[in-house]
Design brief:
With about 260 residues, this protein is of the alpha+beta class. It has two domains: about 80 residues, no CATH class; about 110 residues, Immunoglobulin-like (Sandwich), CATH 2.60.40. Helix content is about 45%, strand content about 20%. It contains five helices and eight strands, in the order αααααββββββββ. Strand 2 and strand 3 form a beta hairpin. The termini are far apart.
Length: about 260
């Protein structure tokens, strides 16, 4: 209690903000010890100060209070005039340094992990592209083998495609019931620009529309080799094979006159 008595007379001035730095520091150090009496007295003094503006009549401050206020203003002005000194490294708590270090480690790991994932994705894409290229190569080789088998197998049904509309060339088709259809020809005229030769399978059924199939452009020497691995219908249900010139990309229905055609049966 004796220790508190020396701070009692400072509490009202503290609530008003009129203590000099030395007294204020001493009182705040005492309050930091957790003294309940002084803490309560400070709260009451602050509340009283907040009510003074409404309850007290206008009056000039005492000379003592003026002196304390002016001293406080001078001290504050001097402190503002001094250059600020950055806190030393030791003033930064250890946990903050640890958090910064952890964030740095996490950032480095994230960057490394992102780079690793990008490398893995690129490698996976390269492997997929290589597999796709190998698959396409195998499909081409398989198609060539099937085409050669169709041409050599005596069981293949031979079909002559006769030229029409000033196309005297005769194309040859061979249809194997299991391997598909192969159509070949030499000295075939080149279609117009942005056009292709398109194969059509004409059904036997009355009124059925022609079924579109493979497309090709002759090579520089006029040679064509068309392989249809899966004809749209069986040989027994197909009346004829025809070829027309169509826009690049093909058509769903013949838009140009038939250039070559041949009966299947």
């Amino acid at each position: 209690m004796k220790n508190c008595d020396q701070f009692r007379e400072l509490i009202e001035a503290y609530a008003l903000g009129a203590l000099d730095p030395q007294d204020r520091a001493a009182l705040e150090a005492h309050l930091a010890t957790g003294c309940p009496e002084c803490a309560k007295a400070v709260e009451e003094a602050r509340w009283l100060v907040s009510q003074l503006a409404y309850a007290a009549p206008e009056a000039n401050p005492s000379d003592m209070l003026k002196g304390r206020l002016m001293q406080t203003v001078r001290v504050e002005a001097q402190s503002l005039g001094k250059p600020r000194v950055m806190p030393s490294k030791s003033a930064i708590p250890f946990w903050l340094w640890a958090a910064v270090a952890a964030l740095l480690v996490f950032s480095v790991y994230s960057a490394w992990n992102t780079r690793r994932l990008q490398d893995e994705i690129r490698q996976a894409n390269d492997r997929a592209a290589a597999l796709q290229a190998a698959r396409q190569k195998i499909e081409v080789q398989l198609a060539d083998l099937k085409r050669d088998a169709i041409m050599m197998d005596p069981a293949s049904h031979k079909i002559a495609l006769w030229g029409e509309h000033a196309h005297p060339e005769t194309l040859e088709a061979k249809w194997h019931s299991q391997l598909g259809v192969c159509i070949m020809g030499d000295k075939v005229p080149m279609p117009s620009a942005n056009h292709v030769l398109q194969v059509w399978f004409i059904p036997k059924k009355e009124g059925a529309k022609p079924m579109p199939s493979a497309m090709v452009r002759p090579d520089a020497s006029g040679k064509i080799m068309i392989y249809v691995s899966a004809p749209p219908d069986s040989m027994d249900n197909t009346k004829a094979i025809a070829i027309t010139e169509e826009p690049a990309g093909g058509s769903g229905w013949p838009t140009m006159p038939i250039l070559w055609s041949g009966n299947v049966t």
